[in-house]
Structures are given as C-alpha cells and as structure tokens.
Amino acid sequence: MSGSLTMSQRLHVWLSGNPDQDVLRWIFRSVIAVTVAVLTADLAAGNGWIGAGDPSLAPERPQHSPGIDLPVPAVLAPWLPGGDRRVTPLPRPDGAMAKPMTFELLSGGKLMATGTITPGSSEAFAAEVARRGDYIRTVVLNSPGGSVTDALAMGRLIREKKFATEVEAGKYCASSCPLVFAGGVERRAGANAAIGVHQVAAVTSSNTAPRDEMDVAQRISARCQRYLGEMGINLQVWVHAMETPHDRLFVFKPDELKSLNIVTTGATPAAAQAAPASVLPAPKTRS
C-alpha cells in the first residue's frame, strides 16, 4: 500500500505525523545547509580551488596597465599622469649646497647665504652681521635647509635688523630655509626660484622613545607655526608643510607665493643682481 503512494501523498503523511515544531526545525536546518553549500562553492571558485568553467563564458574584465589605473596610495598621486608634480622627492644637495652654510658680502649690500643650515650656522650668521651689518641690505638664500633651530634664529635676526630676503632666479630655498626667508621685511623670489616645505623631523638620540620623539616634533612644529604668524606669513604655508612627508618637498607656485604672503614684492631685475652665475651654482633638483 505504502509503495503505491505518490510523492505528495507521502509528504502529507509525513507532515501529519510530525509536530509543527519538528517541521520548522527541519526547514530551518535545510536552509542553513543550502546557504553553507552556496557560500563554500563561491569561496572555492574565488580562490581557484575548483574550476571556473569555460573562460569564454565569463564576463570580460577590463585590462589594467600595472601602476597606472590601479588604486595607489595618495602619497604617490604626484607621480601619476596629470598629478600635482609640485610634490617632489627632496633634492639631494651636492657641492657647495651640501656643505655648511657660508656667507659672502657682494656689492649692492647683498649677503649671499649658500649651503646647508647646520647647528651653529645661526652663530656664524650673527657674527657676520655684527661685522658687516651696516653694509647688508638683503640676505640672498640658496639652501636645501637643515637645522630648524638655527633657521628660526637667523630669521628673527633678519627681522630685527630689517633686512630684505631673496631667492634668485634658478636657485632654491627648501626645508627649513623658508623660515629664514620669512624673516625679511621685504621678500623677493626670482623667475623659476623654488621655495618648498615639508614636515619637520625631530633629531633625537637612538634610545629616545617614539612618544618623546613625537613630543619634540610637535613642540618644534608649534614654534615654527607661531614664528610664521609673527612674520606675517599665511599659516596655510605650514598646513602644506605638515601634509608633506619629510622626504618629499611641496614647492609653491608663483601665485601661491604672493597669495600666502611668502613674497611681498617682485624679483630684482636680472641686470641689477650683483652675483654672477658662477658664484652660486644651481643645484640639480630631481623631480
């Protein structure tokens, strides 16, 4: 008799012979089993554990050129086509630029300050000003930067003496050098002069805890920000500095130099510049 029952009749008999809770439990377990099976199959296909079938039936995926259309970290954006190329690798100084800053007084009251700002550069600068301060009118900078503490001291002395500052055409003033430049009561930049900033890096001993290094860096940053405000520089300059890693350089455009009050007047005409091209060799800036 039971062998002649249809499938629907068998299901009816089974349901009538089981309580509702048993039926619901069976349905729930079935749903769970099907869900697990589907997820397992999808995971296996995604990881290549099982064949993906006929490749010709799969939807066509766009082809990417390595390093061009794929997502990249924001810090690499300047090197992509159409990126903001003002953010460049930090130039590696060589020749005179890699040596401690030197000072040379030229005609027209121009004191040429060339080279790296090292610990003690501010004292050497102060001694030069003490000897020849009556003749100095403008401090002309060509420097990859260096010691922040010395740069701040030099900038304050420049403001105290009411000197002007200048970066000549084709020269550059980077890292902590703009802090010196900011001290000028009048600030000029020649054509294609590069003025750039980046984050400050605390110089500490090898056994200094990371938390202490962070504290030192924050204190230096606060000093620089306060100083720029006192010198009349738009503090957006420091925002750009803090957004740029210390091994990169954010170079300001000519219109930004003016709008942020980094420069206050146009460059000295080329005919009036006292320094010959051979005096201050231009560094090879790598972009």
What keyword list fits this structure?
four-stranded mixed β-sheet, five-stranded mixed β-sheet, alpha/beta, 8 helices, 287 residues, rod-shaped, disordered C terminus
Secondary-structure map:
Blueprint: H1 7-16, H2 20-46, E1 87-89, E2 102-106, E3 110-114, H3 121-132, E4 138-142, H4 148-161, E5 164-167, E6 172-174, H5 177-181, E7 187-189, E8 194-197, H6 210-230, H7 236-243, E9 248-251, H8 254-259
Parallel strand pairs: 3-4, 4-5, 5-7, 6-8
Antiparallel strand pairs: 1-9, 2-3, 8-9
Helix pairs in contact: 3-4
Which strand-content bin applies to the residues? 5-15%
Number of helices: 8
Task: List the strand order in the largest sheet.
Answer: 2-3-4-5-7
Structural class: alpha/beta
The N- to C-terminal Cα distance equals 91 Å
| Residue windows where pLDDT falls under 50 for at least 5 positions | 55-83, 269-287
Helix-strand topology string: HHEEEHEHEEHEEHHEH
Average pLDDT score: 77
Helix percent band: 25-40%
Evaluate the radius of gyration. Answer: 34 Å
Please provide the count of β strands. 9
